[in-house]
Design brief:
Blueprint lengths: L13 E5 L12 H4 L10 H20 L1 H4 L3 H4 L22 E2 L1 H8 L3 H15 L3 H8 L3 H10 L22 E4 L2 E4 L8 H13 L10 E2 L5 H4 L3 H7 L8 E5 L2 E6 L5 H13 L5 E6 L13 E5 L2 E4 L5 H8 L2 H6 L9 E6 L8 E3 L2 H12 L7 E4 L7 H7 L6 E4 L2 E5 L3 H9 L3 E4 H10 L10 E5 L16 E5 L5
Parallel strand pairs: 1-2, 4-5, 7-8, 10-13, 15-17, 16-17
Antiparallel strand pairs: 1-18, 3-4, 6-7, 8-11, 9-10, 11-12, 14-15
Length: about 475
């Protein structure tokens, strides 16, 4: 039987994924709420959609669902058609089962009375909505209700609860590990409703029905409830998908970061082993800082033997920090860039994990041993490691790329120094507009694209503090070992 959920690497040919197009809630963010809602700024919604995100959707459709999009663009983008092709509540919506939109899946499950009642009650309880509003919501048509539950905005324009502007970062709501679905437990209140909605979709939509027993929810244990508030703060479990990478069929990476706690990581290690999902789990501790909230903001994979990473976390970067007398007096343990990397193998004593001194050592081991690369491992550094571009470009997601297949990746157009480094390693940049033009004209077929960095316009998108890796939750990738 054909599988519809399976991910066993970061770079195998992408076949299905979940993405969410920026909804009207994003256009309601105001400056005083931006930080709490995890945006660095307010954005211009029309630009973000029609000049940036829609291009991402078109690229994905071309690569994953060619017949849906080929020949459809002129109509889809005609100003008279109000972008309805991209809107899940409209007749003209592209409705692909390869490029999947949670708002659409949600509208489908809301057709069932029982699911509708339970979900509306859960959301209203969480958002402390009045009973009267709850009743009004229950009467809305499913497509409208779905839109409202996500955006927080009623059809008459009233805001009934806050938006969830980060829902575009579908990576964070959960991760597919082989044929299991690991649900997140968000660290930030601003992302809680995303998680409630996702849970209902995964447990109730027929697309996931065969995988119901494979959904893993991580919850607190009973001891936790009796801890005092301070202890609870220290030992709570939060985990977001940007910190989890299914890097090889038998190997999972787990970041410990601003968003994913040590307690969460240790539970993931145990669960993976108990359920026999993967044998190797590597935990990578990065500094708990806003600038690198998840590990996927500091490195992602380009192909079997190629990675893009934040230079400050590299061997060179760390050695540079060590040079002075002051640094030597302070010592490595105080060097915030010195990552702590521990690998746990099923059956091996947990008190004796394998350690890696530098991130490159781990990534090289993955390329050579897990993924059987026949070529040396290569690294591309954010901003070409030039001062101060490494940090500038990491902030605008130079290290956060989505691989369509080995060597073909989508990144942002604004990270010029990183782009230049890609070019030097044989990954040629092309703008999304230009590539789409070639696809539209039939000058190039998506499957013919090799060794390419596709540059997505990003003036607005990058203000939301996430890149294409964050904006994707892969459901199905081809295996790298066929
Ligand atoms: N996987 C990621 N790196 N996601 C980025 C999420 C960005 C989002 N604004 C947040 O702070 O939550």
């Amino acid at each position: 039987m054909e599988k519809n959920i399976n991910v066993s690497s970061e770079v195998g040919r992408l076949r299905r994924l979940i993405i969410h197009s920026p909804d009207e809630g994003i256009g309601k963010v105001i400056p005083t709420k931006a930080q709490e809602w995890l945006f660095e700024d307010i954005i211009h919604l029309d630009t973000m959609r029609s000049k940036e995100y829609d291009l991402y959707v078109k690229l994905l459709l071309y690569f994953l669902d060619y017949d849906k999009i080929h020949g459809a663009i002129t109509d889809a983008d005609h100003p008279m058609n109000s972008r309805n092709y991209y809107k899940p509540d409209k007749e003209e919506y592209f409705n692909s089962d390869k490029v999947v939109e949670p708002q659409y899946l949600l509208s489908e499950i809301l057709e069932h009375r029982d699911v509708r009642n339970r979900l509306v009650a859960s959301v209203c309880a969480y958002e402390e909505t009045s009973y009267a509003i709850q009743d009004q919501l229950l009467e809305l048509p499913s497509k409208i209700l779905s839109r409202t539950l996500i955006s927080g905005i009623m059809p008459d324009g009233t805001m009934i609860f806050p938006p969830i502007p980060n829902f575009i970062f579908t990576r964070d709501i959960g991760i597919v590990v082989n044929d299991y679905l690991l649900m997140n437990k968000p660290a930030k209140a601003a992302r809680a409703r995303e998680s409630i909605i996702t849970k209902y979709i995964l447990f109730n939509h027929p697309a996931f029905s065969e995988y119901k027993d494979n959904i893993i929810e991580i919850t607190e244990t009973e001891d936790f409830f009796l801890l005092d508030a301070e202890e609870q703060e220290k030992s709570k479990i939060t985990m977001e998908g940007g910190d989890i990478m299914t890097i090889a069929p038998n190997h999972l990476l787990v970041g410990v970061s601003e968003r994913t706690t040590l307690h969460a990581a240790s539970r993931v290690v145990q669960l993976m082993h108990e359920k026999g999902i993967v044998e190797k789990v590597t935990v990578i501790k990065i500094p708990a800082k806003r600038a690198y909230m998840h590990i996927d903001t500091t490195f992602t994979q380009v192909k079997r033997n190629m990675w893009v990473m934040f230079g400050s976390f590299s061997r060179e970067g760390i050695k540079k920090e060590r040079h002075g007398v002051l640094e030597s007096l302070v010592g490595d343990s105080k060097n915030e860039y010195k990552l702590d990397i521990k690998q746990y193998i099923k059956g091996r004593d947990y008190s004796d994990p394998i350690t890696f001194e530098y991130l490159e050592d781990l990534l090289d081991d993955i390329s050579q041993n897990d993924l059987k690369s026949e070529e040396p491992t290569e690294f591309i550094f954010s901003g070409n490691n030039e001062f101060p571009y490494g940090r500038r470009e990491q902030w605008t997601d130079s290290c956060n790329v989505l691989a369509i297949k080995e060597g073909v990746i989508i990144g942002y157009d604004r990270n010029d120094k990183t782009t230049e480094s890609f070019r030097k390693k044989g990954i040629e940049p092309i703008t999304a507009e230009e590539l789409l033009r070639k696809f539209d004209k039939g000058e190039l077929m998506p499957d013919e694209v090799e060794n390419t960095l596709i540059l997505l316009p990003s003036a607005e998108l990058s203000r939301a503090r996430g890149g294409s890796h964050c904006m994707s939750m892969p459901l199905l990738r081809d295996s790298l070992f066929n």
